[in-house]
Automatic annotation (TrEMBL):
GO terms for cellular component: membrane. This is O-antigen ligase-related domain-containing protein. Pfam families: Wzy_C (PF04932). Keywords: Membrane, Transmembrane, Transmembrane helix. It is a multi-pass membrane protein. The chain crosses the membrane at residues 6-28, 40-61, 73-89, 109-126, 132-149, 161-182, 235-254, 261-280, 286-302, 309-330, 420-442, 454-471, 483-502. It is found in: Membrane. Signal peptide: none annotated. It comes from the Bacteria. InterPro entries: O-antigen_ligase-rel_domated (IPR007016), WaaL-like (IPR051533).
Amino acid sequence: MFKQRFWLVIFFIVQLFLTSFIATGILNQNWAYFSLGLQLLAILFFDLENALLSVILSIPLYSVLPNSKLETLSAWRFTFFALFIKFWLQNKKQGLRIKFAPWDKYLGWFAFAVLISVIFSDTGFVLGFKKLAFGINIYLLYLVVLNVLKEREKALLAIKTMLWSLSSIIVFGFVQLVIFSFSNVYYFWQYWATYIARVFYGESLANSAVYSNSWFNFSDSGQSLRMFSTLPDSHAFAVICIFALGAIVSLFVLEREEKSTLTKISLWIMMLLSVLGIIFSGTRGVWVGIVAPVVVLGYFYFKHYGRKLLKPISLPILIFFICLAFSPLIQKGISSFGQSASTSFLQRAGSIYDLSESSNAGRLQIWKYTLIKIILPNPVAGVGYGNFGSVLSASLEEDFNLPKQYITAHSLYLDIFSEVGILGLLAVLAFLKALFLNLYSFFKKHYLFSEDPLVVFVVASGISFVWLFTYSLVDGTVMNDRVLMYFFITLGISGSIFKQYIDKNNA
């Protein structure tokens, strides 16, 4: 086991350098196939647990495989499938059945609604099946996480590994900020779109990012970077930071037992970087969405439910409000060592209620169009999964300065309603109801276990989900590939902990 952990670290370092060299143009993009080969070898030769950890570590590093047919074909599609095959063969050999969580049946309902929408779509079924295959591919990773982490130590190691994976994205966001501060804005923009974005997300997104993206704030005083790291936009980066906070607070509780000063300092640093990442992303929907976890935590405090357990979970939220209040000073400090300058993040937060602001006006425009032009004429089965962009008018493409395939309804729920119809929306709402009822039930049964990092992780993940799905009212970022992966990993770890506590209570 120790040797496998050693080789797991070596594997991650090699993959990190390979991806860095490919992304910066030092190595030809065809080297992505060599990187994929290393990942497949790791899955083959590691035991199942370490194979899973290698996949989680690699999530920030997966790049597009150059080919003439599918320009967005990413390496993760092959590794997730290979990992699931290894898991399925091992289960079959041991005579074990695949376990599901209580909320999984509603995802099955959603898949059925998707098939209905695709069959009755007037705009074709190819995009629908592609998008459905995308979701199922990531769901396979979730099933492995849910079923492999059967013991306490395995769950804790998975949480630590996920945090390493998330932290690499967050830390690189700050490296990106430093690079930007000493670069010409235009050259930084064009280089990132031409090289980095193309390697991770393909030619089409790179070409559109050359002239339109959400990477910057512009004002009369200059430009500032909206932190996004290796992700396609700043909104996905903000959600990545939210997932990191859930893992951090649970490991804080673990370190009370292990008493490692270095680890505690590292966790404090990552908590601060994650909170600052949410602020530097400039994603106002996430900032507003924090109201929901504040209300939930306030309710539990008022009811005297698990106050000791909720204290570490409330800490990142408190730090967020402190940092946002001091954002003018933070912005000034950043501007002092580079050419970056703009209005403060606090002033940006104040623009949330300005309906004439371009971003807000654009959302209102697309919401109105989605409701009147798409949902009302197709309320039952929608226009077909993945076909939202296909039915948009050319005028919207001009208004948003984006190719139609990158325009969304700017709301997860409107996206689903418009593409999958009322059946799909009801399935998603049933999934969320089952998820949150199970989380609430777990919390009520175990809130006295405030020193158990696994209990803290489940509750903190629940708060993260409340935050994410409140934010999803105004954006569909959860469908970004990396965001969806970390969501399902977090969900899978939480589900495995559910199972462990059910088995413990029944023993």
